[in-house]
């Protein structure tokens, strides 16, 4: 019901859209937009009113919107229809009930929307809202196996500073978006405060949706891929595992296994094992008071000198410096 009311509110063609419809050209709404399309151009914070860190606006239809980026976090919510965009050089089509999340350094340009297309922009000036925090993984899923799978399946999008979430089946998140829109267009008492509170709920909901979708991908990908089994074995036994033992466990020839690991991960077996040992050592340095020499032995390093050398190469500081910094 609320969605229909929102569509009814935004469907009429406003004065700016009328001009764009007549000319087919983008019409600047404020002076800063004259710079749109220039290399590395960023829209500043002029859209925000004082003490209003969130702005919700309808994207103007009937004309393309030039290439730009922002000094703030932006969500594009496809209320109705579709929107063709180029995000960081990649063509995408945003469909109804999909949400495009754009971090501060992402660039995008939009093709002209038709009359039946309704795209709403959610702009967040709040500095502590970052896409990276929404993508943050649970400790149990983070690691070389997780990164390998996400890179293999999601490709460059895994590390991109934009994200598309399909909210078609996510009723609660859509309701939160619609409540925020309703507060924005009705301008009721305490509307801004309610919108800000809802934004925190929304961000948590989106994080849960993202993690759920990623977990499903991860589960499907771990069923059959032998490379996943290899990486999981390294994570489980990095302190003592040798290439000969791994080859025996997997049932592969030693040289074939070594070449396979290098081809699939761009790292040697030894490099992967060392990286995992260093990660485990780093966690122990921060979370325990065990002596550094004991940690180096426990995580699989043959000597304290070797441990210090590799640790500095990886983290740019000594184990002692890391521990002192963490205390």
**Arithmetic mean of pLDDT:** 83
Strand order of the largest sheet: 1-3-8-5-6
Number of strands: 10
CATH superfamily of the largest domain: Regulatory protein AraC
Characterize the main sheet. 5 strands, mixed
Low-confidence region ranges: 137-141
* Number of H- or I-type helical stretches: 13
Summarize the helix and strand pattern as letters.
Answer: HHEEEEEEEEEHHEHHHHHHHHH
* CATH level 1 class label of the largest domain: Mainly Beta
Using the alpha-carbon principal axes, give the shape.
Answer: elongated
Taking the alpha carbons of the first and last residues, their distance comes to 54 Å
Rounded radius of gyration (Å) = 25 Å
Task: Give the second-level CATH assignment, the architecture of the largest domain.
Answer: Sandwich
SSE-based structural type:
alpha+beta
Topology:
Blueprint: H1 2-10, H2 15-23, E1 42-43, E2 54-58, E3 65-70, E4 73-80, E5 82-87, E6 90-95, E7 98-102, E8 108-110, E9 118-124, H3 131-134, H4 144-154, E10 162-166, H5 171-186, H6 191-221, H7 226-237, H8 243-250, H9 254-265, H10 269-287, H11 292-298, H12 304-315, H13 319-326
Parallel strand pairs: 1-3
Antiparallel strand pairs: 2-9, 3-8, 4-7, 4-9, 5-6, 5-8, 7-10
Pfam family, one: AraC_binding
GO molecular function: DNA-binding transcription factor activity; sequence-specific DNA binding
Protein name: HTH araC/xylS-type domain-containing protein
